[in-house]
């Protein structure tokens, strides 16, 4: 089997920047999500947080749930699906951004999903690496038990 020779000379500061293969795949995925270009490695995916959905939030309680993206592919989050029996606060933190939250404060469920529990779409897709973790903090604003379901929807981008 003949393999092409690899140029092992180091790059200099004047060399043009070249994107990595992962960057090219993610760029193609963005084009596919916008309906501009087909991407054979792009699959619809729901990042389930059903452990939270199956556990009711106690009155005025706050819980934090880490959800791994999974090692098979990057995840392009397009938005959130959520529902609860009462109002709650949501704070999302991405591990690949050093635990940075998606906002300065936790967001109210009605601000995200309205009173009709409509999906919340991010202003732009959030590209999350395959080895990252999404940590979801939920705070129950009710004096009663609150059954909350929360999911991130988008696309898996296979490498």
CATH fold description: Jelly Rolls
Strand count: 10
Number of structurally distinct domains: 1
Reading off the top of the CATH hierarchy, the class is best stated as Mainly Beta
Q: Helical amount among residues, as a percent range?
A: 10-25%
What is the SS-derived class? mainly beta
Between the first and last Cα atoms, what is the distance in angstroms? 24 Å
What's the tally of helices?
A: 3
Q: What's the helix-strand series?
A: HEHEEEEEEHEEE
Mean pLDDT: 76
Q: What percentage of the residues does DSSP assign to strands (E)?
A: 35-45%
Largest sheet: 5 strands, antiparallel
CATH architecture descriptor text: Sandwich
Q: Would you write up a description of this structure?
A:
- The protein has 159 residues and is mostly beta strands.
- The protein has a single domain (45-158), classed as Jelly Rolls (Sandwich).
- The chain has 3 helices and 10 strands; from the N terminus they run αβαββββββαβββ.
- It has helices at 21-33, 50-53, 109-113; strands at residues 42-48, 56-57, 62-68, 73-84, 88-94, 100-101, 107-108, 120-128, 133-140, 146-158.
- Strands 1, 2, 4, 8 and 10 form a 5-stranded antiparallel β-sheet that branches. Strands 3, 5, 6, 7 and 9 form a 5-stranded antiparallel β-sheet that branches.
- It is elongated, with a radius of gyration of 19 Å.
Describe this structure in a few short sentences.
This protein is mainly β and about 160 residues long.
Structure keywords:
159 residues; mainly beta; Jelly Rolls; 5-stranded antiparallel beta sheet; 10 strands; elongated; disordered N terminus
